[in-house]
Write a structure and sequence with these properties.
homodimer; alpha/beta; elongated; DNA-binding
Chain lengths: 299, 299
DNA sequence: CGCGTTTACGCCTCACGTAAACATC
DNA sequence: GATGTTTACGTGAGGCGTAAACGCG
């Protein structure tokens, strides 16, 4: 039984399949398979059931998993205790939503390049639910997602809030300065699809105002949404930084509303027992650089 | 960093020297040295100071030791959780005093041979203080010693008591049936050297009876002591089983005493963090077979 | 047939022991 | 010189990737 074998077992047990786990370990699938086989041989126990299409944990495998986690944690702690102030290094795949990608992510990348050059950041942009799934399957080391995860094997750390404003094109019902039910009936609501964090904000607001769902036009790209809003296609909400920028250029106007939009809390999420310094260091770096209020870089 | 390296480090750090640690791991000294060197390289830290005659732990080495212990313990636990009911195997060097060796040790050996054939018992007979030292230096896995160890890195488990009787040859002051100060002044006290557990019993008794030390003749062999007592060389104490045997053969008579001799408690001792099943299983086997009251096999 | 896992094979590194060298007392 | 640790070196097992085979949907 070796630490390498246990590490291979951990990833194989918690990733969607061996290929993904192997990728995570910078290993070929066949080598990973052999490591698992050798671990099984050394413990004289079958850890995976291969009779099905996918390898799944046996009872013994389930029994081993928490032990393996503990062992790897202690091993990591051991490395930290002894080799203090060693440069953190490795690839870190970070999942982010489009909003994060367009506001503070470039800042984070710049910071990491100068402060922690041995960390190779690999950003992956997708909607929150996809990122969450990727975290579970082992495709990501960590992700910044709206809200906390309710999944037991994902740990969430609050890192910041994004604020939103109601906006409309200047020529869209120019007399009206406030978001009303009538306005929402007249013009479609342009927003991200359900499942994105922003939807929660909108649903909260609609509920608080006792309004029915207006016509809803969804697209998974903030850029497209902003474009549609500027075109006067409908009304919608934008992150405060964006709203500010477009307002300054007179491309959009900010609408008031009787009830404020709740801010949206974002959390840094990672696999609960993944205590690698790579992850904790990345969390610290994200905390240093997160800022949802900045204007998007592309404008 | 591998488990093998940490195991090598643990033994190298806690044994008297690398050679002994290597022997313990069934490894050549050079291989052990290389393992340590590789561990140092992988952690990028010097663990031993080689400028002195003997390699001694550096500050980092001292920091690593408890972590290594914890890691090895968790590893051992992990093996146990998964591979339950696996046969325990390995060489187990057990230190015992002569009294244990001559009473219950053969019984233990027989038991182990039939019940746990994969454990190779290697008994080593010496006086308690030597066994204790060997435990500390790593020369022994475990030992049965009189009294508990006060050393922080040695764990003690009480396993039984030995009772002793005052004896004398039938022709030695035949009128006297009780141990008195006068008797002890007339005849030398034949006993084990100071440092053996039996000395404590005698000192307790002398103190309780407010007696001064009589003339004392010491020898490190119970066989020699019994021989001298039978010869009428002096008076002394013998384990109850021995006293019973010699009394039955009329070679010795048992003397009464106003104050009883305290029984002597024996403990099973091992290195505190050595949780190998080999050790715990041996402890259980010793508990099953320990019996200081049996007559010695050689009589 | 596609997807996921294992086997076959050639390559090379790594871990071992023997023996000699080195360092300290 | 005795004791204790490291270096040199030849050997064999073990871990790796590529590529082919297997086995279940």
């Amino acid at each position: 039984m070796t630490l390498k074998q246990l590490e291979a077992f951990y990833w194989a047990a918690t990733c969607a399949n061996f290929a993904l786990a192997a990728q995570r370990l910078h290993l070929s699938t066949s080598s990973l398979s052999k490591r698992i086989a050798e671990l099984e041989q050394s413990l004289d126990v079958l850890l995976f059931d291969r009779t099905l299409h996918k390898a799944s944990l046996t009872e013994s495998g389930y029994a081993l998993l928490p032990q393996a986690v503990q062992l790897l944690q202690v091993a990591e702690k051991t490395r930290q205790v002894v080799s203090k102030n060693q440069a953190v290094s490795g690839q870190c795949s970070l999942g982010v939503g489009e909003l994060s990608a367009l506001t503070w992510l470039p800042q984070l990348a710049t910071y990491l390049r100068s402060a922690l050059p041995h960390i190779k950041l690999e950003p992956q942009v997708d909607i929150g639910s996809a990122l969450h799934q990727q975290l579970l399957e082992g495709g990501l080391d960590c992700a910044v997602v709206a809200g906390r995860s309710s999944h037991p094997s994902i740990a969430s750390h609050t890192i910041g809030q994004a604020k939103f404003e109601w906006v409309a094109a200047p020529h869209l019902s120019p007399a009206i300065q406030e978001v009303t039910e009538a306005l929402l009936k007249e013009h479609p609501l342009v927003t991200l699809p359900r499942g994105a964090g922003t939807s929660r904000i909108l649903d909260d607001w609609l509920l608080a105002n006792d309004m029915d769902l207006a016509q809803r036009f969804t697209c998974n790209s903030w850029g497209v949404i902003a474009g549609l809003l500027i075109e006067g296609f409908g009304i919608g909400i934008l992150p405060e930084g964006w709203a500010r920028s477009f307002k300054r250029r007179k491309q959009l106007r900010v609408l008031s509303s009787a009830v404020q939009l709740n801010p949206l809390s974002y959390t840094f999420q990672h696999r609960r027992h993944d205590d690698r310094r790579l992850v904790t260091t990345t969390l610290a770096a994200v905390r240093k650089n997160v800022d949802f209020s900045v204007s998007p870089r592309l404008l």
